[in-house]
Design goal:
1 helix; two-stranded antiparallel ribbon; mainly beta; single chain; 73 residues
Length: 73
């Protein structure tokens, strides 16, 4: 069975490695938590942002989730 490693970085300078049997991603914004969402903001040509987001870094917009960068625009 394949094993996957995800690296997390904490604000205090600490770090952790999470080993899972399924792919997991760290949040692209805070890097301290595992992502459970992806940014649905359209960036053109039928594509979306797709940044990995944790529950604290996502912003629900209707039925979509946006990263904090795209909510400001």
């Amino acid at each position: 069975m394949p094993r996957y490693a995800t690296f997390l970085k904490f604000p205090d300078g600490g770090a952790a490695v999470i080993h899972t049997s399924k792919p997991a991603h760290a949040c692209d914004l805070c890097r301290a938590k595992l992502s459970a969402y992806q940014c649905d903001y359209p960036v053109g040509d039928g594509r979306i942002c797709d940044k990995h987001l944790c529950n604290d870094c996502r912003v629900p917009v209707g039925k979509d989730d946006y990263c904090k960068t795209h909510v400001r625009t």
